[in-house]
Amino acid sequence: MGLELYLDLLSQPSRAVYIFAKKNGIPFQLRTVDLLKGQHLSEQFSQVNCLKKVPVLKDGSFVLTESTAILIYLSSKYQVADHWYPADLQARAQVHEYLGWHADNIRGTFGVLLWTKVLGPLIGVQVPEEKVERNRNSMVLALQRLEDKFLRDRAFIAGQQVTLADLMSLEELIQPVALGCNLFEGRPQLTAWRERVEAFLGAELCQEAHNPIMSVLGQAAKKTLPVPPPEAHASMMLRIARIP
Ligand SMILES: N[C@@H](CCC(=O)N[C@@H](CS)C(=O)NCC(=O)O)C(=O)O
After folding, report:
1. pTM, whole model, 2 decimals?
2. How far is Cα 171 from Cα 241, in angstroms, rounded to an integer?
3. Architecture in CATH of 3-80
4. Which pLDDT tens digit goes with each residue over 220-240?
5. Which of 15, 89, 211, 229 is the right S-S partner for 171, CB 3.0 to 4.6 Å?
């Protein structure tokens, strides 16, 4: 069996892995794990990842979780262009500098709107307005720091070329945009960065990867999204309760 990627394109880190593999012509079998249908909770998927999360890479008997580990594995195994994950020590360290900051400040912050606007209501849970407001402020602060500390006068997050950092970042920042919160508005520096990254990746690939999340709000309004099965509700409610 060749390379298998277990993904759901509603998931930010899954999209980063998908886009990376596609952009670099890496052959893989897509194993879609539909989170809304609770497929990640199935016994079958638990055998692949006992953490019950996507993305997951399976390369023969080798199983790897965590999107950044997966991206680094793919970069090295398929010898993709150096700019993604530079061999130069300091350039590579800057990619990790961002990814560390990203895990603390971006991941977990920009996905909240999906819970407040779509997933909570889908299972009948309303997120308190004060949490929504707090999240809005956290996003503004994180964007400011992203611009001031990382982008500065550079074309991309970790320098003058596209790296894994840009891909991870873009996929998180797209999530609120899909839900009607265009956080790029009034931020020319960030908008120019987004345009550069998307131009590099190609409009067609971006559209393909972003389609499911871009249509989620419309589907929620039309009530065509599958309601997650009851066994998924407890973990979803826990996730919502953890929103700071
Ligand atoms: N740090 C992990 C995050 C993985 C993760 O949280 N995946 C989410 C989708 S974005 C998931 O599978 N959630 C299912 C659940 O927690 O029940 C990574 O970057 O791969």
Report:
1. 0.97
2. 24
3. 3-Layer(aba) Sandwich (3.40)
4. 989 999 999 999 999 999 999
5. 15
